[in-house]
Amino acid sequence: MSPSTAQQMDFHSQLRPETELEIRLLATTEFQEGLMWGKPRFGHPEGKVLYHVKEVLANIDRLELNPEDRSILRQVAYLHDTFKFQEELFATPRSWNQNHAKLARNFSEQYIQDPFVLDLIEMHDEAYFAWRNIYLYSQTEKGFAGIDKIKSAFNDRFQLYYLFFKCDTRTGDKNQTPLKWFEEAFCEIEKVKL
């Protein structure tokens, strides 16, 4: 079902697109459907993905960034959670190819060619998963493998990964412990305040 013109206008007023890519994404029915998905829940009391994306964008606006990094973080903000509506959360066993971040990357490949941006979309939750594996599930080896995966993928752009992780985590009523752990564990990042 295609969103109404009024809803489309609301997407623009809520997210204030700044680039041709952002405007194209907001005109896509599948993307619009993803923005409208969600009900209030732990971590996301705002409900719809649209409102979470708006919060992440507001955090990005608080950072002092060069135009290129700002554009990258905005692209990731638009796309990172927008495919939760297609995720199979309760499939057993869980298929990680149906994870919302993987689905978002697959969709994004039609619009974005930069492998760094695509990796950031796909791996935006990896720091949280690493923390969860180490501290909640006592799967230390798996958690540290996740950290190695992040460091290997983002290498000299690790700071930008951190900035997105912070912008995403400082929303709703998300648990801030994974972010505090990340900031304490990695001396190579330059901590920022939001």
Distance between the termini: 38 Å
Structural class by SSE content: mainly alpha
- The count of strands amounts to 0
Question: Helix fraction?
Answer: 55-70%
Tally of discrete structural domains:
1
What kind of oligomer do you see? single chain
- The count of helical stretches stands at 11
Characterise the protein shown here:
It is a single chain. With 194 residues, the protein is mainly α. It has one domain. The chain is 59% helix and 0% strand. It contains eleven helices and no strands. The protein has helices spanning 5-15, 20-26, 29-35, 49-61, 67-79, 100-108, 115-122, 126-136, 140-154, 158-169, 177-185. The longest helix has 15 residues, at 140-154. The radius of gyration is 16 Å and the shape is globular.
